[in-house]
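Try this one yourself first.
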């Protein structure tokens, strides 16, 4: 099947519901036969995601910068753990290793990864499907703002249309699978 990169939070102070969502996502990826590509962390949603995938028999690939390895937050249980020299090279490798992208709730790092993948797609540097999981309207304010900048022609409607938004992990994976070659 496909290598699906998931962007999500690595914070250690999240409500349990977000950790459960991440674990469910990892498990569902594994059940569908996909490989998980992640940021290579073992904490927060990122850790729950990888643990969920492995608990369901899935393969995991982590990509982490050396600076985070040095902080001992790396997913040493990953089937493949790639160590990079920077956050920028981490994103490049994650894009190269993945067939599709799924974004769960997260903070600045998650948004940085989403926007990197989305920007490179708008520049036709890749045509890999991207889905944003808008659980409980988490991303609604961001989506409203994106609609505003599209209305003001800072973002072309075709660029906005590259990102599929769904309310659940199951519908997100259905959308990604429908667009995979």
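Now uncover the answer:
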């Amino acid at each position: 099947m496909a290598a699906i990169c998931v962007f999500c939070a690595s914070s250690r102070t999240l409500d349990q519901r977000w950790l459960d969502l991440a674990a469910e996502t990892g498990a569902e990826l594994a059940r569908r036969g996909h490989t998980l590509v992640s940021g290579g962390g073992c904490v927060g949603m990122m850790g729950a995601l990888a643990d969920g995938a492995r608990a369901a028999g899935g393969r995991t690939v982590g990509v982490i910068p050396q600076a985070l390895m040095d902080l001992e937050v790396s997913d040493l249980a990953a089937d493949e753990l790639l160590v990079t020299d920077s956050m920028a090279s981490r994103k490049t490798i994650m894009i190269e290793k993945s067939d599709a992208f799924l974004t769960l709730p997260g903070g600045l790092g998650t948004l940085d990864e989403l926007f990197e993948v989305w920007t490179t797609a708008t520049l036709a540097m890749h045509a890999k499907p991207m889905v944003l999981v808008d659980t409980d309207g988490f991303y609604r304010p961001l989506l409203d703002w994106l609609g505003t900048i599209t209305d003001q022609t800072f973002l072309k409607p075709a660029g906005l249309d590259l990102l599929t938004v769904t309310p659940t992990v199951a519908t997100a994976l259905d959308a990604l699978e429908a667009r995979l070659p």
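Discussion: The mean pLDDT is 96. DSSP finds eight helices and seven strands in the chain.
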